[in-house]
Amino acid sequence: MSYEQMQNNQVYLSGQIASEPEFSHEIMGEKFYDMTVSVARLSGQNDVIPITISDRLMEGGSFEIGNLIGLIGQFRSYNKIVDGKSKLVLRVFVRELCECDDNAPNVIEIDGYVCKQPVYRTTPFKREIVDLLIAVNRAYNKSDYIPAIAWGRNARYASTFRVGEKIHLMGRIQSRVYQKALDDGSVEERVAYEVSITKFEQEKEVEN
After folding, report:
1. pLDDT at residue 102 tops 60
2. Which of 81, 58, 54, 85 is nearest to 69 (CA)?
3. pTM across the whole model
């Protein structure tokens, strides 16, 4: 992975381990484990964020529920087939462990491209919101597709973005519980993950 590709998708999280490590997969003898990290918001609520970490980073550490963890990584997307349908799965891929920082426990910064027409709407409480889907380049000709939201004045501004436009954004990863109506009439509780944008700017492509 090039330096530029590492810099265009950066995440810092500091929180408590919320679930036991569970084996995910193995590549060239390196084992990877999935778990979740609970990160506090200023409001007192918590975002419970899924992460994937290598056994090589876990060596000598304690990863029990409730233990503190600080990490640097990337917010990545994967396609997973569930009940015959493709589902976008989002996780933080851990690149290194670091010291915890309660002053900025949840920070993400990405450079990417608007890959879907922004959806502007208002909530029942008359708050303005826009939904974005950002494509972020990764090594080996792959891309991560990151859902993001912006509120208020930022929402109005982002609603003017065009598909293919390059943007730089900062914010935090948030988890959101919602209810999904199923075909049989029942309701299932699910969790969505997205970037809540605090700051962004349009970027101009450099011409050679």
Report:
1. yes
2. 58
3. 0.90
Which of 77, 69, 74 is CA-nearest to residue 133?
77
Q: Give the pLDDT mean for 80-92.
A: 83
Q: Look at strands 142-151 and 187-202 and give their pairing.
A: parallel
> What is the structure's pLDDT at 3?
44
Higher pLDDT, 26 or 84: 26
When the candidates are 2.40.50.140, 3.30.465.10, 3.40.50.720, 1.25.40.10, the CATH number that belongs to 110-202 is: 2.40.50.140
Phi-psi group of 110: left, alpha or beta (phi > 0 → left; psi -120 to 50 → alpha; rest → beta): beta
Contact 136, 9 (CB under 8 A): yes
Q: Can you tell me the distance from the alpha carbon of 64 to that of 181, in angstroms, rounded to the nearest whole number?
A: 35
